[in-house]
Amino acid sequence: MAEIRGDRRAAVVPLAVGGLVLSLFPIVYLHVSSVGELSPITHTISDYIFVDDGAGLLAVTALSLAAASAALLVALVRSGLPRRGPVAVLLGLWSAGLAVATVFPTDPSGSPTSFSGAVHRYAGAVMFAALPLAGWLISRTFIASTALRRFSVAAGITSVVFMLSHVAVLFPGSGAVVVGLFERVLFALLYCVLFLLAVAALRRGVRS
C-alpha cells in the first residue's frame, strides 16, 4: 500500500513540473513580443492584458501556475504534509489568488481603481505573501532544505519591497516607478521556490 501511495505521489510531481514549465512560455512570449510597447521596469506583468492576445496568454500562464501549485500541494500532502495545516492553507491561498487575479483583471495605468482592479490588487497581495511564507514553513517544519529556506526568505523580502514600490505609482513624483522590475524579480524567486518544492516532493516520494 505504501508503494502504491509513493507511485501516485511520484506521478503527481511531473504533472506539477509540466504545469510550471508550460506557464513560462506565454509570459516569455509576451515579454518578447511587446518590446517597445511595455516597459519591464515600470509596467507590471498584469499590464500585458492590454497588448494583443495578452489577456488569453496571461490567463494560460496564471491558470497553469495555479494548477501546478495545486498538484504540488497534493504531492506534499501525500508525502505527509498535514492536509489542514497552515502550509496547506497558504499554498491554497497562493493558487486561489492566481485564479482570482485572472478573473478580475487590473486597471489601465493612470485610470481610477475599479472593483475588478481592487480585487486584483488584493488577490495579488495575498498570493505574494502566501507562497514565500509557505516555502519558509515547509523548510523549517517538513523538508530540511537550505536552498528552499533562502529562496523563500528572499521572495518574502522582495514581496515587501514590491508592495512598497507602489508608493511611487500612487503618489506620482515621489520616486522612480520600478514596480515592474521588482515584480519580475519576485516572480523569478517564486518560480525557484515552486521548483524546489517539486524536487523535495519527488525525493520524499522516492525515499518512501
From TrEMBL:
Has UniProt tagged this entry with the keyword Transmembrane helix? yes
Q: Which UniProt keywords apply?
A: Membrane, Transmembrane, Transmembrane helix
Q: Which residues cross the membrane?
A: 12-32, 55-75, 87-106, 118-139, 151-173, 185-202
Q: Which InterPro entries match?
A: DUF998
Record flagged with keyword Phosphoprotein: no
Superkingdom of source: Bacteria
What is the designated name of this protein?
DUF998 domain-containing protein
Organism name: Saccharothrix longispora
